[in-house]
Design a protein that fits this description.
Elements lengths: L1 H16 L6 H26 L7 H19 L3 H23 L4 H19 L5 H4 L5 E2 L13 H24 L2 H11 L1 H6 L4 H27 L1 E2 L6 H14 L6 H19 L4 H15 L3 H15 L1
Antiparallel strand pairs: 1-2
Length: about 325
């Protein structure tokens, strides 16, 4: 435990030093890594720990992003207030979506969530909602400046703000998954009949898993909107949901640290693939993905855990 605390402390120190060592563009990329890490942690709660497959979490990411953008653009809300607001809206939306989804399992649940991911961009373009969503043109928002005269550029300040929110969300996720609720979610995933016989309210916990997962993803969406300064329906296609699923598989299912590894993968590997081949970047991305899955079938987090176990055994 002391080693883990020491490693975590070193990791936080490195994270705080990074924006002063890299360019503004790299700082922006690192901010997106933190954003994706929150989203992947949320999806991992649902899929990795509770066993419910979702191919539509990009819809909750879009909902969080649009909640933040609309509150800033239409209501003049401060940027720090829109993040919990987006999380609250997505918590309710995810819980309500989880209620009818209780009747579905496996591939049928995956198809239902896939339909949600496909429908969301079209709903955002709906002409009766254009007054709020901006239609196909989307909404442009300003990047927040550092408060109280803190001498930091906007990109660096947003990075530190996102880092603070990420730490809060990861601590929240760790406490949730290491406690009674986390054990209940895993029990439902492993054997739902036995878990119900032991007194676990399967329907309630599965709906709560959807709601909490959507809340994490909505917070990530709000932070992503602040980082990109723009939201539009075509930015939240179903491919985003698939990328999130790729992230948790590569990072490691049922792993809190795997969310960070998966976020690094989905942020930087496409850029590396584009540098290798301008003609077929996604083919190179596919090769990387197959390589990671083949060499590390339990994800990056699982491979690191196995390596540490073998080292202790020696």
């Amino acid at each position: 435990m002391r080693g883990r605390i020491l490693f975590l402390g070193v990791l936080i120190v490195v994270a705080c030093a990074l924006p002063f060592l890299v360019s503004s563009y790299r700082t922006f990329q690192l901010t997106l890594v933190l954003v994706y890490a929150i989203a992947l942690l949320g999806l991992n709660i649902l899929t990795g720990y509770n066993g419910q497959i979702s191919l539509g979490h990009g819809a909750f990411y879009a909902l969080g992003a649009y909640c933040a953008a609309i509150l800033i653009d239409k209501a003049g809300a401060p940027y720090w207030a829109v993040v919990p607001a987006a999380g609250g809206v997505c918590l309710v939306a995810g819980f309500l979506f989880g209620l009818p989804a209780l009747r579905l399992e496996g591939l049928y649940l995956a198809l239902a969530t896939f339909a949600l991911g496909v429908a969301m961009p079209q709903l955002l373009k709906y002409h009766h909602l254009e007054k709020w969503t901006g239609g196909v043109q989307g909404i442009v928002i300003a990047k927040p400046e550092a408060p109280f005269g803190i001498p930091l550029e906007a990109d660096r300040w947003l990075y530190f703000f996102t880092l603070a929110v990420t730490l809060i969300m990861f601590v929240l996720g760790w406490n949730l998954l290491r406690g009674r609720i986390g054990r209940a979610l895993v029990a439902i995933r492993d054997q739902h009949t036995a878990s119900e016989a032991m007194g676990i309210h399967n329907a309630l916990y599965k709906s709560l898993a959807f709601g909490v997962s959507a809340m994490f993803t909505g917070v990530a969406g709000a932070l992503g909107a602040l980082a990109v300064q723009f939201v539009a329906p075509d930015s939240f296609g179903v491919f985003l949901s698939i990328v999130f699923l790729v992230g948790i598989v590569v990072g490691g299912l049922a792993s809190i640290s795997g969310a960070l590894y998966g976020a690094l993968f989905i942020q930087f590997i496409p850029n590396i693939a584009d540098e290798i081949s301008k003609a077929a970047p996604w083919a190179i991305f596919g090769v990387f993905m197959i390589g990671f899955v083949y060499l590390m079938p339990t994800g990056v987090a699982g491979a690191i855990r196995l390596l540490l176990t073998r080292r202790r055994a020696q």
